Each structure stands twice: as C-alpha cells, then as structure tokens.
Amino acid sequence: MKAEEFDARFDDGEDITHHLDLAHARRPGHEQRRVNVDFPAWMIDALDREAKRLGVTRQSVIKVWIADHLDRPDPVRR
C-alpha cells in the first residue's frame, strides 16, 4: 500500500493497525537510556513513602516529577 492510500484510510477513520508492525514500533526521541543517581537515604525514604501513597514505583515518581519540571515554562530559559 502506498503512503497516500495509508494516510487516506487513516484520515477516514479506518482501523489501520493491522498494517503496522507494532512489535518494532518506536517513538523517536523516547528511547530509554539508563542513568545512575545517588540520593541521600532520607530522600529515598521520602520517595518510597510517596510511591506507596500513589501506588506506583519509586522510579515512576522520579520520572513524573522530573518530566513535570522539564515541561514547565521557565522564565529564565529563553
């Protein structure tokens, strides 16, 4: 199928997922990379309490908080 036909089917609301290889789909710029960060024990304890309160993992709390901060408009950065 040509790209124009694929686009037209998508635009018409047709389910085109059977034409996709979702097992190998990637979001550019969203590849995972590992980093190591050392936190003081009190901070780990606080993160664990917050993670338990929210019912998620410590890693999820850290990711959400960092993403939230990075998405905020910063008047200093231009």
What is the radius of gyration computed over CA atoms, rounded to a whole number of angstroms?
20 Å
Helix tally equals 3
Q: Average pLDDT, to the nearest integer? A: 89
**Low-pLDDT residue spans:** none
Q: Which class best fits the helix and strand makeup?
A: mainly alpha
Strand content: under 5%
Task: Tell me the count of domains.
Answer: 1
Query: What is the overall silhouette?
Result: elongated
**Terminus-to-terminus distance:** 44 Å
What about the largest sheet?
none
SSE ordering: HHH
Number of strands: 0
> What helical percentage do the residues reach?
40-55%
Would you kindly provide a written description of the structure presented here, covering whatever features stand out?
The structure is a single chain. With about 80 residues, the chain is mostly helical. The chain has one domain. The protein contains three helices and no strands. It has helices spanning about 5-10, 40-55, 60-70. α2 crosses α3. The longest helix is centred in the middle third of the chain and has 14 residues, at about 40-55. The radius of gyration is 20 Å and the shape is elongated. The N and C termini lie far apart (about 45 Å).
Short account of what is shown:
The chain has helices at residues 3-11, 41-54, 58-71. By secondary structure, the chain is mostly helical.
List keywords for this structure.
78 residues, 3 helices
What's the structural blueprint in terms of helices and strands?
Elements: H1 3-11, H2 41-54, H3 58-71
